[in-house]
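Supplementary Methods S3. Input chains for the assembly prediction are listed below.
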Amino acid sequence: MDKIIITEEQQKAARYAKAMGHPIRMYVLDLLSKQSCCYSGDLTEYLPIVKSTLSQHLKELRDAGLIQGEIEAPRIKYCLNKENWKEAQDLFLKFLKLEIEEPIQKCQ
Amino acid sequence: MDKIIITEEQQKAARYAKAMGHPIRMYVLDLLSKQSCCYSGDLTEYLPIVKSTLSQHLKELRDAGLIQGEIEAPRIKYCLNKENWKEAQDLFLKFLKLEIEEPIQKCQ
DNA sequence: TACTTTGTTCGTTATTTCACGAACTACGAA
DNA sequence: TTCGTAGTTCGTGAAATAACGAACAAAGTA
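Predicted structure tokens for the full assembly:
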């Protein structure tokens, strides 16, 4: 009997979800979706973890493709990876069944 | 210096995201968002994992509050936990900045 | 060139996750 | 009551995750 193939989309969505699956990382993504960029140093200052731990979380977000860093010596400026963020938005939108059509009813 | 408090919403969103962070679980949720219910046995039949492993994944989804099982002897019928699913939708919608207002631009 | 700042990598430890098979439980059917 | 079906739980092992401090690398400043 043939086994189900889990779709590429489901795999991708799970990958993004996994990256979002920690409070610290969720915080960072939430922040970046609001203010376009941030510096790692500012985060360590306020988050209750040491810089090496933060670095690991940022690496996870980078590996998942959700954020990207830009060197602005001596610091690194992080922002969302717009392309992948868009993909994640689309995947979740679809997954959550928040169809594009639905909100249109709210017009007028 | 005071540390940032990660909001309740961020914690919750991270919790849901974590539960969605595995291809098998994403598959199950995706299925349930489409067809209202399913039976564990049918899943084992098609998914490339044994029943005990599936049981663990379903337990994770249950613990996260995303699904609920109803005994329909000798089987168990699973469906989304509507209340929490709604909460997850709202949290992600907000998080992904898919504001209700935004799609309005698409009108006319 | 030395110093400072910023962030990554390394080594370690504890915990969690994922997967499996075996054993167990619940319950309807023979 | 015995059997079969459906799922859960248990025990195990391998791998991944999370956290820390120490050491390291890169690059601007004194």
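Residues 22, 49-50, 52-53, 56-57, 60, 71, 73-74 of chain A lie near DNA strand D (CB under 10 Å from a C1'). The helical segments of chain A are 8-20, 23-35, 40-46, 51-63, 82-95, 101-104.
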